[in-house]
From TrEMBL, chain A:
GO biological process: transmembrane transport
Transmembrane parts of this sequence: 15-31, 100-119, 131-150, 156-180, 201-234, 254-272
Subcellular location, record wording: Cell membrane
Keyword line: Cell membrane, Membrane, Transmembrane, Transmembrane helix, Transport
Keyword Transport: yes
Protein topology in the membrane: Multi-pass membrane protein
Coiled coil residues, start to end: none
Family: Belongs to the binding-protein-dependent transport system permease family.
Every ABC transmembrane type-1 domain range: 92-272
Protein name: ABC transporter permease subunit
CC annotations in GO: plasma membrane
UniProtKB/TrEMBL annotation, chain B:
Domain ABC transporter: 5-234
GO MF annotation: an example: ATP binding
PROSITE patterns listed in its UniProt record: ABC_TRANSPORTER_1, ABC_TRANSPORTER_2
Family in the record: Belongs to the ABC transporter superfamily.
Alphabetical list of Gene3D superfamilies matching this protein: P-loop containing nucleotide triphosphate hydrolases
Keywords of the record: ATP-binding, Nucleotide-binding, Transport
Any one Pfam family match given in the protein's UniProt record, by short name: ABC_tran
Source taxonomy: Bacteria, Pseudomonadati, Pseudomonadota, Alphaproteobacteria, Rhodobacterales
Protein name as catalogued: ABC transporter ATP-binding protein
Family annotation (InterPro entries): AAA+_ATPase, ABC_transporter-like_ATP-bd, ABC_transporter-like_CS, ABC_transporter_ATP-bind, P-loop_NTPase
Protein origin, superkingdom: Bacteria
Amino acid sequence: MGAIRRLGAGLRRDWISAMVVIALIVGWEIAGHMAPRSPLRESPIVPPWEFIFGRALTGLSDYWKIEMWAPVPQLGGAQTLLGAVLALVFHSALTLFRLTVGLVLGGLAGVLLGLALSWSSRVRKLVAPSLHLARMCPLLAMIPLFQFWFGATNWAAIVFVAYGVGVIYLIGTVNAVANVPARYIENARVLGASRLRIHRSIILPAILPELFSSVFLTLGLAWSAVIGAEYIGVESGIGRMVIWSEYFSNTGRMALITLVILAYAMASFALCRKLQERVLAWTPKRPGA
Amino acid sequence: MISITNASCVFRHASGREVRALDRISSTIGDGEFVCLLGRSGHGKSTLLRSLAGLNTLTAGEIAVDGRPVKGPGIDRGMVFQEDTVFPWMTVQANVEFGLLAQGIPAAERQGVAREWLDKVGLGRFGDSWPKELSGGMRKRVAIATAFAGGAPILLMDEPFGPLDYVTRRDLQNLLIDLWRSTGRTIIFVTHDIEEALVLAERALVLRAGRIVDDIRVDLTRPRDEEERASPRGIAISKTILGHLELEQHTPGAA
């Protein structure tokens, strides 16, 4: 609710962007009614809003497959709004779980490995070229390989997300460590700090501001990776719902699920920005921040 | 006691040119002395101080503290840098505690010692502040408190008051003198400012081209206010130092 209220405040503050959003919504609706009529009732070329939040929303109950709380359309049950919400919550929860665990594992592994590599400059110079190679690897092209290794399971999606973000964190960490001002490290050495202590109390906090740019970068990447993994292989999750919609050309459902993913992505960005404010309370105000 | 024996340090520039930053320097500094290292920039003051701290390796010669050769930084030597080295991600209190933390001293004792030093530098109420909330002069006080709290009997200061305004500088000089007198620690203070040396030092080592060209007793009475510095002895010391630094061509034979 707070996010919505803040969104409202933001829109009032910045009426140009508000106008753009309204124009997009209205334009979409007009396009929905102008577009040639599709021969299939469930597949309007451009689904208008009343269709998206009407038939398409109820239709999502097709993806509720547990004989509890709501009828299961697959077994001849009726399409219900409750079923639709349950299906959405169930598959969202799976996707969010994969995303969160993948992000945390990948982030931890990337940062720790990055710190380990930065332990000596010789090691860093040795691995730098292969790091560059890892970053250039097209992530989505590797999904089938990951599924071959880990099966079409939760783990496959998690490991895939973790790998995707881990590489970014690793490179981000190595770069950030190289940018820590020497004076802080010298001061810590003079004060008698061991190498481990310097890594823990000086280098780790000093790289945090720079690391947060990796956080925002990987958040977008993680969303693509997890949806991609579900889209191509894993048999559940919100990405899979898009595939199911595609089987019968349910354009309304595709648009609706895309909107839901957009909402999640925006919420996760807002959450990370909050986290950044808290963790980086010590940083001097940057101009424009 | 610090003994410096034939300390030399040669840097090789990217161009391949060799620079002799320290050229066979020898001297001894007794416990509890306040020594200023004076000289123009690029004449070896900072290199000598960093060598004393163990942050710079000599290419020849040796520096020993109480008979033990300096191999690297050690908790017997603290340092206050010219740059702002207060860790911005730690509160003021945590900054002052850091040296004690690194030495493995238990939390309760750390807190007590840090609070005591914050009081002594006049920042008793700022323990919970972030460094960004403090002025440059206050952050310098934090750096001084941190160096003293670490417990090192020898404190090395590399133009610590350089970037500060005149009045703040005078305040901090007075603070430093008070702390030096009440603790009896050895302070080696790099400066290019003759007035600062006259205010602070018991002894001034003048460096030129990597060599110690003079070792002057600054035997003025304290407080070293304007009158005292303008006394015949004060002016004589100033003139001698100036002669070594830059006015040599105009005062031949001063060395």
